[in-house]
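User: Hi! Is it possible to get a structure for several chains at once, not just one? Here's what I have:
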Amino acid sequence: MAEEVKLFRTWSSPYALRIVWALKLKGIEYETIFEDLTNKSPSLLQYNPTHGKVPVLVRDGKPVCESLVILEYVDEIWKHNPLLPQDPYEKSMARFWANFGDDKLMKSIWQLFIAHEKDQDVAAVAALENLKIVEEQLKGKKFFQGETIGYLDLAFGWIANLVSILEEIMSLKLVDGERFPHLSSWIQHFIDAPVIRDCWPPRDKMIIKFQVMRENYLAAATPK
Amino acid sequence: MAGDKVVVLGTYVSMFSMRAQVALNEKGIEYEKKEEDLANKSPLFLEMNPVHKKIPVLIHNGKPVCESLIIVQYIDEVWHDKNPLLPSDPYQRAQARFWADFVDKKVYDCGRRIWATKGEEKEAAKKEFIGIMKTLEGELGNKPYFGGEDFGYVDVALIPFYCWFHAYENFGNFKTETECPKLVEWAKRCMQRESVSKSLADPHKIYEFVVSLKKKLGIE
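Assistant: Yes, the chains can be modeled jointly so their relative placement is included. Here is the combined structure:
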């Protein structure tokens, strides 16, 4: 029975990329629907009425929302090339670190990115502390869960791409090889992996997009 | 499993601690509850959750699991043969995870703003809170529980907030029962389960806690 799988995404969303990678790792064929979030399609609003966000995975007409929820769903439906560990304790650790990545790390890097110059030092401290915590997790490992790419690598995948884009815009190096040897090495392994490599959004487009976003934030929060 | 040592580090008032307790009670697991003083964190606590320094922490045979929903899923997976909390169908599981995540993203923050702010901000928080509850009520529909016929994951995620309703309602000047009668019906149904009633705090004690917290934080 042929399944119909669709992925609603934007060209730039790092969250959607997680699903692109997961489906590629599992060898699943699907249709991509690119959304313009300033002009959401009726389908997107129908499939994700609660948040109206991407990504949304629709399988045989049934939608699943929230990228980390979708990753677990993908892993449970297509059991080959497992993404999550089997052991409940290992699984809980993977979930914990994925949450940390989204709730703490990404937020702190973003805060630094949109900080005014006078606030940058303080924001940088938080971002660097969180990066150090992740660095610790990678000691002695090629990927977060061992020798092969798994759930946690996909969850942290945005570090391998988005961070260097934000760094270029800020003219500030966060993840350097000296302070973060394990993280830097992971980034290299991750971006070199065949499944990951060809999926990145165009870098020049990303730079423009995030530059504009930063300018807007800085303008909106101009100190008196 | 015989010989398991299970400890929950939590606080009496935390709805997140309560989730862990409800889940363990549902599974009939014996555990020790340790009340943590967050103003004076114990060495055990700091060792078990060095990253966030937050409760609850579940310690199972010496190994810590942090973050309440992750704890609930862990409990469900380890003691999978009794009263499953997550459905077995992957799509239903995804829906359950989505709604638990929704509760996490929305309820606590909004509830806090009701008692921690005043004037327009408080009014806005109250409206938002009612909106959130209505959305959840819509998701519940005519089912006895969020999971359907059986008490499950989303019920565990949300029910601990019920003992905080009295505080929210007092500070926000509204009654959840008027706005969302079906949701309150659901909550009362959950409270009939011993696993829940044993775990939730007394709403009046929660209210007193918020009153004293507001004083401590200098919020009028």
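The domain at 88-216 of chain A is CATH 1.20.1050.10 (Glutathione S-transferase Yfyf (Class Pi); Chain A, domain 2). The two ends of chain A are 63 Å apart (CA to CA).

User: Great, thank you!
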